[in-house]
Amino acid sequence: MTYDDNNIFAKILNGDIPCDKVYEDEHVLAFRDIAPQKKTHVLVIPKGRYTDIVDFGSNASPEEVLGFYKAVAKIAKDEGLTTNGFRSIANTGEFGGQEVPHFHMHLLGGEPVGKMVG
Ligand code: 5GP
Questions:
Q1: Domain spanning 8-109, CATH class
Q2: Which of 20, 62, 92, 107 registers the highest number of CB atoms within 10 A of its CB?
Q3: Residue whose CA lies nearest to ligand 1 atom number 13
């Protein structure tokens, strides 16, 4: 899949669209989902132009991959998600239900999240 520079997360990254930011560093931006599906619902995205987890895992630099997962761990702790647990989801492609074609990880918690696949 070719990266679409007009996707909504690209617009958040370049400042065209605001977000409720929870974390930012050189590799990562994290913000609250506009339509939260659980009490806590954070989206973590790399700043690089990657369409999905496969593109990211295949083409991102070691620094970007490390930075991404370090940020996920920090955000999970800072948001209080590690006390009772949470779910991390990366939807991929049509069958995975991915709506925004910029790689993102959902962190869902703050309450029980239910069955893995509903
Ligand atoms: P996907 O279905 O691609 O895994 O998830 C995309 C997520 O992005 C959805 O949970 C949706 O609510 C969220 N989203 C879509 N547009 C915006 C937006 O403009 N701002 C924020 N913060 N979240 C968005």
A1: alpha beta
A2: 107
A3: 33
